Amino acid sequence: MGESWMVIINPNAGRRKGEKDWPKIDLLLRQRGFSFEYAFSKYPRHAIDIARESVEQGFRNIIAVGGDGTVNEVVNGVFLQKKVPTSEVTLAAIPVGTGNDWGKMFHIPNNYQQAIDIIARGKSFLQDAGIVDYHSGKTKYSRYFINIAGIGFDAVVAKKTNSRKEKGKSNPFSYLMALFSSLLKYNACEAEITAGRSANKMNASLFSMNVGICRYNGGGMKQAPHAIPDDGLFDLTIIRKVKKRRVIRHVRKIYNGSHLKLPYVSSLRTDTVSITSRCPISLEVDGESLGHTPLEFSVIPSSIKVIVA
After folding, report:
1. Model confidence over 101-145: pLDDT tens digits?
2. Which of 274, 89, 115, 302 is closest to 195 using CA atoms?
3. Per residue in 200-223, pLDDT tens?
4. What is the Cα–Cα distance from 66 to 100, expressed in whole angstroms?
């Protein structure tokens, strides 16, 4: 591999697999002929700074070693740098996390050797990104994402899942465990959703909502089953107020995308969407817990080059 890569490792990913398995990944990269430098992230959002500084220093190829949150931070670093257009930076991933939902879209395996072989082959794809303006208290912030944003119940479950991860209790069933425990106390909230440049409005007692560029989140749930990552549009999945026993009964449908057929679920495609609400509704993007409504989403078409199988 003649080009030089920056490898950014989240040591905490996958119950510290990032740290434990790095010597193995390091060796596999060297055996495959990669020229690279590497850095470990040391605290939340640190990978954003590492990625931004790497591009500013001349790197045009970045490998994220971690889960969806690590990929998201690297993406934000790429978008926050002002040195080159984001489409000139190539992003690859070696999945180490517990979810790895973005990688599922592009058939990136959890096997390190196979993931590295895919990077070495160099097949790339220009995919869309999204940006969301959100609030924490009265302060407005922005975040980029390349997979799925969750609003309402989905964000509450993500927050509980992340809390379990921080306590070292993460496992393949963490999302489901968080889902069922969160369901006991969660209530829908009245919201106004405005979609598209023509500002089509709908009011809903909103239980949960996804804004998808890709299809999977929550450890393999097909929340946005028809999302196309380079069509310049978000796929919205809107779940209105529903009896909690129905959520339990139908949760398996989210894994194959058939939840879109349920009477309290609707979907649409749009390049922008905004959400206001009577009470604060929580937000997560790419599995990372953020703030709350009001929210404004916009697509950034074909804006980042990613390595795919």
Report:
1. 999 999 999 999 999 999 999 999 999 999 999 999 999 999 999
2. 274
3. 899 999 999 999 999 999 888 999
4. 8
Closest among 67, 50, 75, 73 to 108, alpha carbons compared: 67
Predicted pLDDT of residue 181: 83
DSSP string, 212-230: ESSS-BTTTB-SSTT--TT
**Cα(108)–Cα(115) distance, integer angstroms:** 6
Domain boundaries, the chain: 4-122, 130-301
For residue 284, pLDDT over 50 is answered with yes
Residue 286 structure tokens: 């790419």
Helix 13-31 to helix 68-80 angle (10° resolution) is: 70
Virtual torsion, Cα 44, 45, 49, 55, nearest 10 deg: 120
Look up the CATH superfamily of 4-122: Probable inorganic polyphosphate/atp-NAD kinase; domain 1 (3.40.50.10330)
Contact 236, 270 (CB under 8 A): yes
Whole-Å CA distances, 37 to 16, 32, 167, 269: 21, 15, 30, 40
User: Does the structure show a pLDDT above 50 at 1?
Assistant: no
- How far, in Å, CA of 278 to CA of 157, rounded? 21
Structure tokens belonging to residue 115: 């993931």
The architecture (CATH level 2) of 130-301 comes to Sandwich (2.60)
Both tokens assigned to 11: 């040591």
| Percent share of the chain, pLDDT over 70 | 96
- CA 4 to chain CA mean position, Å: 26
Across the chain, mean pLDDT equals: 93
Please tell me the distance from the alpha carbon of residue 307 to that of residue 309, in angstroms, as a whole number.
7
How many angstroms separate the Cα of 47 from the Cα of each of 14, 53, 77, 137, 219?
16, 10, 7, 25, 22
